[in-house]
Write a structure and sequence with these properties.
The chain is an alpha/beta fold and about 325 residues long. Helix content is about 40%, strand content about 30%. The chain has 3 domains: about 80 residues, Urease, subunit C, domain 1 (Roll), CATH 2.30.40; about 110 residues, Diaminopimelate Epimerase, Chain A, domain 1 (Roll), CATH 3.10.310.70; about 70 residues, no CATH class. It contains 11 helices and 18 strands. The strands form 5 sheets. The protein has a 6-stranded mixed β-sheet. A 4-stranded mixed β-sheet has the order 6-5-2-8. α3 packs across α9 and α9 packs across α10. The protein is elongated.
Length: about 325
């Protein structure tokens, strides 16, 4: 008798399931903002082949659809993917591969982070961003002296938090050809001065070029701080990231964006190589971020994309 009842209940269950449509994903018990024509708020939805098949109440979805993957949202809010109408997605990705200096409370902390970063990142240039001397005791710009001692053979470029200034070491300045006589429109190359060392004074005194009665002589040094347009002197000699480095940067940016629900970005001022890399990664399924790419207005970009447009229109 018991076996007959169990068999009957099992058959009812199979019949009931047989009437349900199989989907890829069911999300239920949520507060789902559909943003449809009526801006309805529902409890559940079903997904199939990457598309919303149905939205509705818990009973409407669970009674009609079945899936191997279901998510109980437990009353949490669910929104359509957000999009950013103007951003620099690629630049953000490159920043994610650089040394993070945001929140450093002293220049000592900047140096400590750089040393730790250099141990696991063997790049030809050490890049960093986010320092802010206003957070430090004294609120004064740092100098490159410590960087020169620790990284004499590796060029360093550290952008201030607002991007309007950078700290570079002597190696970077040498590559860029910056010296005390270098000038730049719309920018500054900061210097500082300090008295001659006793050793140098003694040497000059021995050579008859300096006496104890002479006023204290100060020497001017490059501080390593570049402001506004002066930063371009170094930026233009920094090698472009390789294809693989850009791929890693884009995927890191995507990971962060997806974590906060950002699924579409409009990127301004892209070069052709970055646009084509984004396109290739999307076609491979690696980059799932929706991208509205705006090419920078260079002659090369304009000629290339106008030609592509003419070919497309002629078909």
């Amino acid at each position: 008798m018991k076996l007959s009842i169990c068999a009957f209940l099992l058959s009812l269950c199979l019949i009931s399931c047989g009437h349900k449509e199989k989907v890829d994903l069911i999300v239920h018990h949520g507060v789902v903002y559909t943003v449809d024509s009526g801006f309805r708020i529902v409890e559940a939805f079903a997904i199939k082949d990457g598309k919303f098949l149905a939205v509705g109440s818990n009973s409407e979805i669970l009674d009609k659809y079945v899936s191997d993957k279901t998510i109980d949202a437990k009353g949490k809010a669910i929104y359509p993917g957000f999009f950013d109408a103007h951003c620099h997605f690629d630049s953000y990705g490159r920043m994610k591969t650089q040394c993070d200096l945001v929140g450093c409370r002293s220049f000592r902390e900047v140096v400590d982070r750089l040393v730790a970063y250099a141990k696991t990142n063997k790049a030809n240039w050490i890049m960093g961003r986010g320092w802010d001397q206003n957070r430090w005791p004294g609120q004064e710009f740092p100098t490159k002296d410590t960087l020169d001692k620790l990284f004499p053979n590796t060029p360093i470029y550290l952008s201030r938090v607002d991007g309007h200034a950078a700290l570079v070491n002597q190696k970077a300045m040498d590559i860029a050809g910056i010296n005390l006589n270098t000038t730049v429109n719309g920018g500054k190359i900061l210097t500082y001065s300090k008295p001659l060392s006793l050793k140098l004074q003694a040497k000059l005194e021995k050579e008859g070029l300096f006496t104890a009665d002479d006023p204290i002589v100060e020497t001017i040094y490059l501080s390593g701080i570049l402001v506004d347009n002066a930063t371009d002197l170094v930026k233009k000699v920094i090698p472009k990231p390789t294809h693989q480095e850009m791929r890693i940067a884009l995927l890191k940016a995507q990971e962060d964006c997806f974590k906060v629900g950002l699924t579409t970005v409009d990127i301004a001022g892209l070069d052709r190589d970055v646009i084509e890399l984004i396109d290739s990664l999307q076609k491979k399924g690696e980059l799932k971020m929706r991208v509205y790419a705006m090419a920078s207005g260079t002659d090369e970009n304009i000629d290339y994309y106008l030609k592509k447009l003419r070919i497309r229109l002629s078909r």
